[in-house]
Amino acid sequence: MSGPPEDEPTLAPAEIMAATASMRRLFSARAGIAAMLRAEAALARAGAAAGLIAAEAATAIETACAGEKPDPAALAEAGARAGTIVVPLVAWLRAAVPAHAAAIHRGGTTQDIVDTGLILQLRDGFLLLEADLDAAEAGRC
Predict the structure, then answer these.
(1) What are the tens digits of pLDDT across the range 10-25?
(2) Cα Dmax for the chain
(3) Do residues 57 and 48 make contact, with C-beta atoms less than 8 angstroms apart?
(4) Residue 140: which pLDDT band, with cuts at 50, 70 and 90?
(5) Exposure of 22 by Cβ count < 10 A (0-12 exposed, 13-18 middle, 19+ buried)?
(6) DSSP-assigned letter for residue 98
(7) CA torsion, points 77, 92, 82, 24, in degrees to nearest 10?
(8) 16 in helix, strand or coil?
(9) Using an 8 Å Cβ cutoff, are 28 and 8 in contact?
(10) CA–CA separation, 57 vs 97, rounded Å?
């Protein structure tokens, strides 16, 4: 696997945070967007379970979150203007699921999505580190 494209903006300085290509991919802009969309999908599932949104809305939101992702450069630019990347991310998601736009982001804050997305990335990063440690322990490094 290769790392993120050279012209792709980063949500965090992955090149100084990560020593391996796998870890840099995990903290690329595309991966950060995917993680925040996973958080939005989870929020929709929880909202449906709590009766805040319809189950069909949650399903449509989850499907959109798992599909095509927005352009990282356009999202970063719009996020800089909005003060947070979540504002244009939610706008993109609402445009992707217009029939259920009112259900998107219901009960969440922009900070919830940023924080949860980052925690999902960190969890996956710990799994990568654990695998590296297991390999080192087994003498496979």
Answers:
(1) 555 656 666 788 888 8
(2) 54
(3) yes
(4) low
(5) middle
(6) G
(7) -50
(8) helix
(9) yes
(10) 9
CB 103 within 8 A of CB 57: yes
Residues 131 and 52: beta-carbon distance below 8 Å:
no
Angle at CA 12, nearest 5°, toward 67 and 124? 60
pLDDT digits (tens, 9 = 90+) for 83-96: 999 999 999 999 99
Q: How far is the C-alpha of 35 from the C-alpha of 29, rounded, in Å?
A: 10
Within 8 A by CB and 6+ apart from 25, the residues are 1, 3, 4, 31
Instruction: Count how many residues are written for the chain.
Output: 141
User: Cα-atom radius of gyration of the chain, to the nearest Å?
Assistant: 17
Give the separation between CA 32 and CA 26, rounded to whole angstroms.
Answer: 8
Two structure tokens written together for 89 = 């991310």
Chain centre to alpha carbon of residue 121: 8
Euclidean distance between CA atoms 86 and 28, whole angstroms: 16
Instruction: Name the DSSP letter for residue 133.
Output: H
Give first-to-last CA distance, the chain, whole Å.
18
